[in-house]
Amino acid sequence: MRKLRVLADVRGAASREAPAAPVGRSIRAKLLADGQHYDELVARAIAQARVSVWIATANLKTMMVEAPIGSRARARGKYVSFFETLGELAQRGIDVCILHASPPGPFLKRELTRLASKNRGVKMRRCPRVHLKMIAIDGKLLYLGSANLTGAGLGAKGDGRRNFEMGIVTDDESMLDAAQDKFDRIWRGRECAACGMRKQCDAPLDIAVASSRAATSRDPTSREKTKRTCRSPSERR
Q1: HEC states along 71-90?
Q2: What is the dihedral of CA 31, 47, 236, 20, to 10 degrees?
Q3: Is 22 a member of any domain?
Q4: Measuring CA to CA, which residue among 25, 23, 33 is closest to residue 3?
Q5: 3-state SS assignment for residue 127
Q6: Three-state DSSP class for 150?
Q7: What are the residues facing 28 on neighbouring strands?
Q8: Whole-angstrom Cα distance, residue 12 to residue 9?
Q9: In-domain check, residue 125
Q10: Which helix (H) or strand (E) holds 176?
C-alpha cells in the first residue's frame, strides 16, 4: 500500500459532536478501480476472512463468483452465488453482517430462500438512509468507495459490462475504528431516535434490535447463538 495524505480528523469522525478542524496526516492505502474490486476484495480478502466480514451497501443484487479454491466446482470452472460463499463463512463461525438500504430484488429473494439453510448465519439489517459503501474484514482491512454489493459494482462481470468504480483499501486503525463504529451505531439502531425519516421507515432498527433482545432473554437456547452478533472486531485485534 502507498501512503495517502488525507484531510480528516478520523478520531472525531464517529462522535456525535462536531469534529475538530481537519488535520492532515498520512495513511497507508491502495487505490482500487473497476475489476480490481473483485480481485482484491472478493477473491482474496473476503475469501480469506478469519473473524468478520461487515458490508454496508446501498444496493444489493445476486452476484456470481468463482467457486472456492480446492472445491470440485472450482476444478470444473463453475461459479457460485456470492451469498453462498458468505453463508459458508458464517457456518465456520465468521461474523458476517450486511447493512443495506434497498430491499433484495425478486431474483435475490429467491436465491436467499434457496440458500436459507446455509445462510442462516449471515445477518442482514436494513436502513433506508444507508448510502455508504464499506467493507471491513477481520477488523484489519477497510474498503471505502463507490461499489455496491452487486456483480457490476464489485467487478464480477466482464470487461465492458461492469461499472466504473473506484475506492481505497487501508489497514489504518483510526479509520477502521471510526468506520466500524459508524456501522455498529447504525446496526444497533443507535441512530434511529434522532432520525428525521423515522416516520417513513417501515422497520426502525432500534425496535427490531429491542425485540430481538427480548426474544433472546425469554429463550436461553437462543442467547448463545446471538451473543456474537456484530461485536466490534477492533476489540479482538
Answers
A1: CHHHHCCCEEEHHHHHHHHH
A2: 20
A3: no
A4: 25
A5: coil
A6: coil
A7: 3
A8: 6
A9: yes
A10: helix 173-187
Inside any domain, residue 18:
no
Grid coordinates of 194 = 434522532
pTM above 0.85, yes or no: no
**Pair 28, 145: CB distance under 8 Å:** no
Extract the C-alpha cell encoding 101. Answer: 438500504
Helix (H, G, I), strand (E, B) or coil at 51: coil
CATH number at residue 46: 3.30.870.10
Specify which residues 32 forms β-bridges with: 167
**Cell numbers representing residue 82 in the block:** 456470492
Give how many domains the chain has, as a whole number: 1
Q: Supply the range of the domain harboring residue 102.
A: 29-236
Local confidence pLDDT in tens for the 237 residues of the chain: 776 665 544 444 444 454 555 567 788 999 999 999 999 999 999 999 999 999 999 999 988 888 776 667 666 778 888 998 899 899 999 999 999 999 888 888 888 888 887 667 899 999 999 999 999 999 999 999 999 999 999 998 888 999 999 999 999 999 999 999 999 999 999 999 999 999 889 889 998 888 777 665 555 544 344 334 555 555 544
Q: In 3D, which of 131, 46, 130 has the Cα closest to residue 90?
A: 46
SS3 159: coil
Q: Is residue 2 part of a domain?
A: no
**Of 153, 132, 150, 152, which is closest to residue 142 (Cα–Cα)?**
132
- In which residue are the cell numbers 455496491 written? 148
